[in-house]
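Reading a protein record of the kind used here takes little practice once its layout is understood. An example of such a record is reproduced below.
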Amino acid sequence: MASIDELLKNTAFTVADRSKVTFLPDPPRQPRKYTFISVDDHIVEPPDAFEGRMPAKFAEQTPRVVEQDGSHVWIYDGKEFPNVGFNAVVGRPVDEYSMEPSRFDDMRRGSWDIHERIKDMDLSGVYASLCFPSFLPGFAGQRLQLSTKDTELALAATRAWNDWNIEAWSGAYPDRMIPCQLPYFLDPEVGAKEIYRNAERGFKAVTFTEAPHLLGMPSLHTGHWDPIMRACEETGTVINLHIGSSGTSPSTAPDAPPDVVGVLFFGYSMFSAVDWLYSRIPVRFPDIKIVLSEGGIGWVPGLVDRLNHMLSYHEMYGTWKGIDLTPAEVLLRNFYFCAVEDPSSFALRDVIGVDHIFLEQDYPHCDSTWPHTQRTIEEEIGGLPDADVRKMTWENASRVYRHPVPPAVQNDPDAY
């Protein structure tokens, strides 16, 4: 399999032949006031991610990148997955933003090159990052498993992605990257064994789907997923529910413009939080940690109010019967909430729980605060009490994901 540099070098398809692609000059290193851990960034998997990591018998089915009509396309088990970039648009003018790019050389190299990613983190003042997969696996790894009928292949591809992550991505800079694995969905007992195995290898989190029933799998309310949930609780593996990991978007009119999906980003997480809460997974597994990634925080106080309002007649439903804590208390105990840009919401941080709020950068997507992340933090929470700011910028993430921050960095953001 060709390396990314060989793939780019050998292509005869030039920039001039494609739609306009403009790379802005590298920004200067941003002044740093805050130590910062971003709990939501993304990887564009490089072409060699699966190379040498799949069993020989799957040589023909192994995910690989080919050039096709001027685009770079993933091929997996005979199927084509064309959108290699999936909105990896940082470093380009806003008027060129789209759900593409379709080529690696149309993206800022930090999208798929770990060494360049660290440089871009340095530019915007990000000490550590937790990264989610991109278009080929899907945000929860579902495409590697549900797009093939070969369950052995699906498990091998999932393991290969996790091997690549822990060896070549997170493992390349263990102080700067928080390892987050793909789950194995097709057999919860096998999936649980993978959680245990990966915890021993250093993975701190798993990116699970927000709504498995929407992917054609058993719902959260069946108990089907309990082996995986138990494994996560026992190993301290944090469950991340990234918006869109169900392969769907919040429902609107079928002829509504595409902007509505962006407007309703928080809708994914609000629906997901209620579904997970009333599945009673966090009741059966009281030490489990569930992070609603990229879902915002502004909706949380309203949900808390509604949950408390329903206490006056919740016995009518009987769902919560025999549970000592209220739904709102369980929500605020087991769930964590992530803000990209939620300036008006921080005033209600005490309702949400200041120990349960994380911040994100969302590199390399159009929502990203890169390269002005430090400035955005200052504008949104710079006037809040120092103790609260430290919690939201890095202490909460460091504690929950068990990712230590050296004292020198804690006390001086310029130390990295």
Notes: The two ends are 35 Å apart (CA to CA). The CA atoms of residues 183 and 365 lie 23 Å apart. The longest strand covers residues 37-42.
